[in-house]
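Supplementary notes for students who missed Thursday's class. We covered one full example, reproduced here. Read the sequence, then the structure, then the short commentary at the end.
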Amino acid sequence: MPEFAHIAFTNAVKKVQSLMGTRTHMQRWSEHPDKRDRLSDEQVDFIRARTSLYIATANSAGMPYIQHRGGDAGFVRVVNATTLMMSDQPGNGQFITQGNLSENSGAMIFVMDYANRRRLKLWGEAFVSYDDNLKTLTSSTASDTPAPTIVFKLKAWDENCPQHIPQLFDNKMIDALQSRIHHLETQLTELDRA
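Structure (token representation):
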């Protein structure tokens, strides 16, 4: 059974699935033999190529918090099939994620690829390390001031269908497409002249 089904499909969730008519399908799906508790090589490559993600934590009272994190591709270091690390660069100085992790290690990461409408959901536990060696290792660029490191230990993963993911493109991709269009238009103009 996929590990995420153990984590996500609580009795309350199963009741809602029954109410909404999806419980039978979810039960069959939960019986899949793949445990989904380790990242594949393809998923590791997917994570390494991303420039942003969302990390969810909750405080000891259960109040959730979601934070966007980003950087150059590779800002998330995949240590192995069950461990990720990333620098927790300071933003506005609230440090809610670090505070939440100090009292509740449960965490979830959404890794998004909007251009290809793909999402990888990761359940696990995380902690913040203030070790200087890890700070240096997880700095995205040489100009980054070393910051504390979030270490995420994977328990389970799941991927979703792309049905409701908007297709969005970053500036780098748009620039490349515009350059390609310009090149093709130039070729067409030259062919028309010939």
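Commentary. The two ends are 64 Å apart (CA to CA). The chain has a mean pLDDT of 88. If anything here is unclear, bring it to office hours.
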